Amino acid sequence: MIPTKGAIIPAAVGVDIGCGMNALRTALTAEDLPENLAELRQAIETAVPHGRTTGRCKRDKGAWENPPVNVDAKWAELEAGYQWLTQKYPRFLNTNNYKHLGTLGTGNHFIEICLDEADQVWIMLHSGSRGIGNAIGTYFIDLAQKEMQETLETLPSRDLAYFMEGTEYFDDYLKAVAWAQLFASLNRDAMMENVVTALQSITQKTVRQPQTLAMEEINCHHNYVQKEQHFGEEIYVTRKGAVSARAGQYGIIPGSMGAKSFIVRGLGNEESFCSCSHGAGRVMSRTKAKKLFSVEDQIRATAHVECRKDAEVIDEIPMAYKDIDAVMAAQSDLVEVIYTLRQVVCVKG
């Protein structure tokens, strides 16, 4: 979490702009789930494009070929902002945008079916602004460094290059980031709708509750920037791997694949600028995890979860992440736990 006055640091926000979580407490219980959870995982994988096709293949498995109606409806909310963005910066025309809306991506992005302490079924997912957000972040990070070329050496790191408030690039970056954050939020909403439909098709039962409390349906960013008021001043708060935790505000803190996750309520700790950690965090790089662990290790570590258990996802093995219980204990003055979730199905990109 980085608070700034009169400036924004694009590299602090990063390239996965608007990355965050969505969680929904459904009307289902554990008894409503099929005995064969592989069938459910396959239905989710069919409903939501995930992963990425490398090389020169024309068809990217991580994008829609023909986006469904709910994606079209959400793209309509983004259309005006996209027109401004691409008219001023035509380079963004050559990006994955419309066909990435409602798709998961790769890496640590996931869709999970979880159970809470009462065995109520939850859907939880993690994704961001996909290809277009990456392009926006990459371009403006590079632009900030070029704009500060003469004074860049005075900074401890090139990644601290910033735009000053009141300049054209500051305004453009803030507008582009706000659009990417909206894309990310709508991306998660579209995926949630399609996972609900998939779950309904498998269980043949109504998934959504007639009425949902605020703590039972949450969509929150953990890589973003916005203007906030703290200590009597208006500032820009950049949360990179952090969640807003204002008093009474609900958030989602996932563990690693196979570990517990939490629905939390913020305590409004001003010393943290009303923020908390967004998850467990890695204890080793993806490269090291792939060298250190085997497929057999992955199978043992995720024995209780219906998920991929192959060489391509070893870098997401639970042992590559911190102990989520220790993380939660360390931030007990920032949030309180409302629900504790355990995964039964996990879809990775």
From TrEMBL:
Mn(2+) 2 binds at H126, H222. Keywords: GTP-binding, Ligase, Manganese, Metal-binding, Nucleotide-binding, RNA repair. The keyword Ligase applies. Gene3D superfamilies: tRNA-splicing ligase RtcB. GMP binds at residues 108-112, 222-223, 254-257, 261, 278-281, 348. Its cofactor is Mn(2+). Mn(2+) 1 binds at D16, H109. It catalyses: a 3'-end 3'-phospho-ribonucleotide-RNA + a 5'-end dephospho-ribonucleoside-RNA + GTP = a ribonucleotidyl-ribonucleotide-RNA + GMP + diphosphate; a 3'-end 2',3'-cyclophospho-ribonucleotide-RNA + a 5'-end dephospho-ribonucleoside-RNA + GTP + H2O = a ribonucleotidyl-ribonucleotide-RNA + GMP + diphosphate + H(+). Pfam families: RtcB. One of its GO terms (molecular function) is DNA ligase activity. GO terms for biological process: DNA repair; RNA processing; RNA repair. PANTHER family: RNA-SPLICING LIGASE RTCB. Belongs to the RtcB family. This is 3'-phosphate/5'-hydroxy nucleic acid ligase. The lineage of its organism: Bacteria, Pseudomonadati, Pseudomonadota, Gammaproteobacteria, Enterobacterales.
